[in-house]
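User: My advisor asked me to double-check a structure prediction for Glycosyl transferase family group 2 before group meeting. I don't want to rely on an old file, so could you generate it fresh from this sequence?
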Amino acid sequence: MRIGESGIDPYTRAVSDVYQDVFNEGSFIGKGIYDVDAFEQALGERLPENCILSHDLLEGCYARAGLLSDVQLYEEYPVRYSADVSRRHRWIRGDWQLLGWLLPSVPGAGKERQKNPLSWLSRWKIFDNLRRSLTAAALTLLLLLGWTVLPMAGFWTLAVLAILLIPSVSASLLSLVRKPADLLLSQHLAAEMRAAEGHFAQAALTLICLPYEAYFSLDAIIRTIWRMAVSKQRLLEWNPSSEANRDSTTLAAAYRTMWIAPFIAVVTGLYLVLVYPKALLVAAPILLLWWLAPAIIWWMSEPLARRTSKLTPDQTVFLRKTARKTWAYFENLVGVQDN
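Assistant: Sure, here is a fresh prediction for Glycosyl transferase family group 2 from the sequence you gave:
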């Protein structure tokens, strides 16, 4: 899910970037305007062949990149959760393939190693991606330990909920106080209410899918380390989005894919019933969400029903007159002599 203010207005709502604002350096994400010769000079004979899956960040670290805030690029987003997971699984594998670029020496185009030319900021960007890939696993582990081992199960549950909700609350409040001058207060409040609903829905979805997110993230990390250290194969494995969108969409398929979430819910629930029943009162709502996670994701991934509307004769006449007046404006007032 991606939540933001609807509409297209790149001129008054340009987004800043922390790296660009503080360090005068952006992050290359695979799309942009660049000098081909300078790009080749910065990266020529620098990187090993057939070993780097996610090369965008690394290329930006070598060649440097800047934020272009007044240009917006649009691309198709995965239509189902399973397709999004497949893409993020690939991204995590690509991020962990860059683990070696945190070391003093890095692999080069040949077999020899080179002195790491990356700045500490670039290394931090790589490390931050690795940290982010472990977030779901860390939060899941914290919840399970808080319910089964650590004292004060309610405290640890609230701590995890706060971690998930604080970004949504902060984003909503910050956006609320930034009312554009050209927007009425009522329109601004209505738009922010819709955006806030989206932010909190995204936080709720993160909580629901937490065990499965942890599962596929750890799967990607372990696969990558094994392939880099042992097998040396399938380092560039990549399933196109079109293939991921062809996965089965039945409820049974959702439970087969996300089996880890209901499994953890059932096992944890049984343990709490037998060993620590007091914590079950705190954990039960979240465990229920985890047990229902495949069904919720299956329901969310179903295609939306198309809404059709039938115009009345008066509405049809009005639209045709408006279209004719619009065309007449350009026909009469905009010609060759005006270009």
